[in-house]
């Protein structure tokens, strides 16, 4: 007896007849309407009476909404694996994660050869399929920058670039009957997909045993492999027996009869599910999610009770680990990444994390410069699944895991916008609890200035709607007070904007900074400008990016023109674009790198002494990249005590990226620049010294924050990002990235 405890899935196995192409599409749509989850299609490229299966699947995916699509099974000898990988990822992305991949080694060799394919022995077919799986999986894995390399007997892929990444982890199912194919299924596949017509009841147990043994031999849990079956029966009792006694959990009806499909979905599937659930409850059958394989469990770290994790989690050794371990700048190695989907699950995750004897990190989008949204050997609470974006009346409700590029696109549909940094992949949570210096800040202020409400998980696990004093603290020092699971913001009307990019010879950096600073301070508020000074072999170059937040192109030209004489112009362009195009999401995967040394400060003006200090910093060669962002304008309309971000007199935010260590950058920054700065925007500073806290939160703000910290987080659970010690404690900053 074998019951692997998988959730039951029901689908159809459809014939791709070319004579009436509309009929097979209609049957797939009927599959969806009947409540079935999966439609699969034969793949016989040499059969001239059939539609091309890949083209058909794409068409069906475009004409359905929830239906999963899969070949049953793909003829690998006539489908180049590297192309299959890209095609599968593309279809998965276009269908929003609705694709599964069934593969077969081939069997009808005469027509395969007639089509230009190879002739392979059974053993060669298995070897070739194994190589194909390796190629496909490597091309889907974008967690490394190394090119794909499979130097096999039948396929040689040497250095192919990886990607695109599928929308979800595409399962690979193998059509297998013989011992070698069954072993391959256990070693590398996610599912076994035979046909009932080709097997006898006595064949199931030996086949399952071969798969299980092969899985265990490579350190896999046999329950990782779903047992699927193309069936030619809709008898409820027989299907129940196949589930409970032979381990099958996906039943795919081989029929093009619309009445049979309808009955299978509306009558048979519910009856089988009910009977199996009842018997499993009586037997005490364990159902998913299942434990990790021995190979994964062997990588577990001390200090974490892995089996007690209360929500979905990824740990070292899991296939998805490479996608969640790192932040934008820091390649972390957390012991466990929790992935809650609701506020209640965030609460459960936090309570669990507090019980572990390891560091804690909270991640929204993971784009932070400091790398504090991951760690070494600790627990990370990843809020990426809380990514909702909803416009309700004059409010926007945003999940912390949403990306600002997606927020801009959704708000843009309603003629609204929100200034929120300069890069669309930045997560909502980190920016909306820190400040939010964006391309429309001089006209509309910081992002936090428009946050009107928040739902928060406090340090003790309570879920609350922020009251006035907690909301005050969250807007500027939010990382210290809880985990925000939903933000309420007031967006404002935003249509097209003028986006300008200019490049200048910056061989005299101080002069460039002084001229630019003066012109920006005196520009209309619609103009917000960011300047990058980059050291190159031919000398420093200034890159200037500006947004005029309005559609009046004549007014934009008038505002932008004075910027052209700050230095010799190397390049310039401007265009009228929708604001979402300026901060479009890139969809990039955070893969980390070397920890980045960055110092930050705020300046009221870029007068000659300040500008010269920044030029002197570049001359030390400890920084090769300097960015200055214009603030002021509407940012300074807000009273200093209105939010925990108290810097309401400065006009510029300055950031310097170091070439090597933070210690060396600190020495150069402290000598040349620090005396000219007035405050700190903490999202861009990686200096762990305690005095940075007072730069970020000048008195009386810091004292007020410490009093509130004692109320909301007396145990200082949230101490990972510029920790504010509760009142009565020593002030300090956690230096761990």
Write up what this structure looks like:
The protein has 737 residues and is an alpha/beta fold. Among the domains are: 9-283, TIM Barrel; 496-699, Vanillyl-alcohol Oxidase, Chain A, domain 3 (3-Layer(aba) Sandwich), CATH 3.40.462.20. The strands form six sheets. Strands 3-2-1-11-10-9-8-5-4 form a nine-stranded parallel sheet, covered by helices on one side. Strands 26-23-25-24-28-29-27 form a seven-stranded antiparallel sheet. The protein has a five-stranded antiparallel sheet with strand order 16-17-21-19-20. A hairpin with a 6-residue loop joins strand 24 and strand 25.
In brief, what are we looking at here?
The protein is of the alpha/beta class and 737 residues long. 33% of the residues lie in helices and 19% in strands. Strand 24 and strand 25 (541-548) form a beta hairpin.
């Amino acid at each position: 007896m074998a019951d692997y405890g998988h959730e039951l899935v029901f689908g159809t196995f459809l014939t791709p007849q070319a004579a009436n192409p509309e009929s097979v599409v209609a049957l797939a749509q009927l599959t969806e309407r009947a409540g079935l989850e999966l439609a699969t299609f034969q793949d016989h490229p040499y059969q001239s009476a059939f539609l091309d299966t890949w083209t058909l699947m794409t068409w069906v995916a475009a004409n359905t909404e929830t239906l999963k699509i899969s070949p049953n099974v793909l003829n690998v000898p006539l489908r180049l694996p590297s192309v299959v990988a890209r095609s599968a990822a593309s279809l998965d992305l276009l269908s929003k994660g609705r694709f599964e991949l069934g593969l077969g080694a081939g069997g009808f060799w005469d027509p395969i050869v007639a089509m230009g394919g190879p002739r392979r022995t059974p053993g060669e077919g298995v070897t070739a399929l194994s190589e194909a799986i390796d190629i496909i999986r490597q091309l889907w894995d974008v967690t490394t920058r190394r090119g794909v390399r499979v130097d096999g007997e039948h396929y040689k892929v040497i250095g192919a670039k990886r990607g695109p990444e599928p929308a979800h982890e595409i399962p690979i199912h193998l059509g297998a009957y013989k011992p070698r194919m069954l072993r391959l299924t256990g070693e590398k596949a996610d599912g076994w997909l035979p046909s009932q017509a080709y097997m006898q009841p006595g064949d199931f147990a030996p086949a399952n045993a071969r798969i299980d043994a092969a899985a265990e031999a490579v350190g896999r849990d046999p329950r990782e492999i779903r047992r699927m079956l193309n069936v030619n029966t809709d008898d409820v009792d027989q299907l129940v027996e196949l589930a409970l006694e032979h381990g099958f959990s996906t039943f795919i009806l081989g029929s093009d009869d619309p009445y049979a499909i309808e009955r299978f979905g509306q009558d048979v599937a519910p009856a089988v599910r009910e009977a199996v659930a009842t018997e499993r409850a009586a037997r005490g059958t364990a159902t998913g999610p299942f434990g990790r394989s021995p190979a994964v469990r062997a990588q577990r770290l001390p200090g974490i009770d892995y089996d007690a994790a209360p929500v979905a989690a990824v740990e070292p050794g899991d296939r998805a680990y490479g996608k969640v371990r790192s932040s934008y700048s820091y390649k972390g190695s957390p012991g466990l990444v929790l992935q809650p989907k609701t506020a209640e699950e965030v609460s459960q995750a936090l309570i669990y994390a507090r019980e572990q004897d390891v560091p804690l990190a909270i991640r929204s989008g993971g784009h932070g410069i400091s790398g504090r949204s991951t760690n070494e050997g600790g627990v990370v609470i990843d809020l990426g699944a809380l990514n909702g974006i909803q416009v309700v009346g004059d409010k926007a409700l945003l999940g912390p895991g949403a990306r600002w590029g997606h927020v801009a696109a959704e708000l843009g549909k309603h003629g609204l916008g929100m200034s929120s940094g300069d890069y669309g992949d930045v997560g909502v949570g980190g920016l909306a609890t820190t400040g939010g210096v964006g391309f429309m800040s001089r006209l509309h202020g910081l992002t936090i200035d428009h946050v009107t409400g928040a739902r928060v998980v406090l340090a003790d696990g309570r879920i609350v709607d922020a009251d006035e004093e907690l909301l005050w603290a969250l807007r500027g020092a939010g990382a210290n007070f809880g985990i925000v699971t939903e933000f309420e913001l007031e967006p404002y009307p935003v249509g097209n904007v003028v986006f300008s990019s200019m490049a200048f010879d910056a061989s005299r950096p101080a002069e460039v900074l002084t001229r630019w600073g003066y012109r920006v301070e005196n520009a209309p508020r619609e103009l917000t400008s960011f300047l990058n000074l980059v050291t190159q072999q031919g000398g420093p170059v200034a890159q200037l990016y500006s947004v005029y937040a309005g559609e009046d192109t004549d007014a934009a030209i008038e505002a932008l023109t004075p910027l052209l004489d700050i230095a010799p112009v190397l390049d310039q362009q401007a265009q009228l674009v929708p604001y979402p195009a300026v901060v479009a999401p890139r969809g990039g995967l955070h893969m980390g790198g070397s920890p980045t040394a960055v110092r930050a400060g705020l300046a009221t003006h870029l007068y000659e002494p300040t500008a010269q200090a920044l030029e002197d910093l570049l001359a030390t060669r400890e920084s090769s990249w300097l960015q200055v962002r214009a603030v002021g304008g509407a940012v300074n309309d807000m009273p200093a005590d209105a939010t925990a971000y108290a810097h309401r007199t400065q006009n510029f935010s300055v950031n310097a990226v170091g070439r090597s260590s933070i210690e060396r950058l600190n020495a150069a920054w402290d000598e040349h620049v620090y005396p000219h700065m007035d405050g700190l925007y903490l999202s861009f500073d990686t200096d762990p010294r305690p005095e940075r806290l007072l730069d970020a939160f000048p008195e009386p703000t810091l004292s007020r924050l410490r009093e509130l910290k004692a109320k909301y987080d007396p145990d200082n659970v949230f101490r990972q990002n510029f920790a504010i010690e509760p009142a009565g404690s020593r002030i300090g900053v956690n230096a761990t990235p």
